[in-house]
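During the no-cost extension, the postdoctoral fellow (Dr. R.K.) reprocessed legacy sequence entries with the updated structure-token encoder. One reprocessed record is reproduced below for audit purposes.
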Amino acid sequence: MTQEILPGIELESGVRPDATVIWLHGLGADGNDFVPIVDEMRLPPSLSIRFVFPHAPVRPVTLNGGMAMRAWYDIYNANLSDRADLAGVRQSQAQVEALITREKARGIAPRRIVLAGFSQGGVIALYTGLRHAERLAGIVALSTYLVRGGELAAEASAANRDVPIFMAHGTQDPMVRLEWGDASRRALAANGYAVEWHTYPMPHSVVWEEIEAVSAFLARVLAPA
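Re-encoded structure tokens follow.
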């Protein structure tokens, strides 16, 4: 059965885009959350990128008392080890794969596609990108963590063993703790991935220096051939 395409927002940084960044928001937000980042990154004019900001489905979130909100998966509790609803993670993985397939149909090669996400969205960007069957341009994972890192060696796609990964985290993050992000970075390194790692004196948020670093990363991995 064909996976339904998630609704969302699209912006293009130039005419006839030849690259795509699929950017996934955090818990309780929607695709509008990171739309302003397109202008804030001040990307080189040589890059023509389609930014896709999908809206996560609305679902009850156990950790928030069962309140329904936009979420990429349910969060069961505050412990990292059994925090994420794996069925929900895999459902979101399939929805992101459908977005990748659509970009390919629009003429964007997989090697010109970046998966990016903040918090919950970063979980899905990592989970999907590391398992995607074709080489991607890169993965951006902000204030987030790796789900089922112990299964990565068996499930990872050989095509993305050398995919560039950008991770950043706030040293004052009370929601997704710094040690979770750092443990995720170390788990990726143990599996042979090269991770560009940044920390910033911030809570569960984004700061200007981080935006600049993401911009430089995108300019590098999406540089015109």
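The CA atoms of residues 150 and 187 lie 8 Å apart. The mean pLDDT is 94. The remaining legacy entries will be reprocessed before the final report is submitted.
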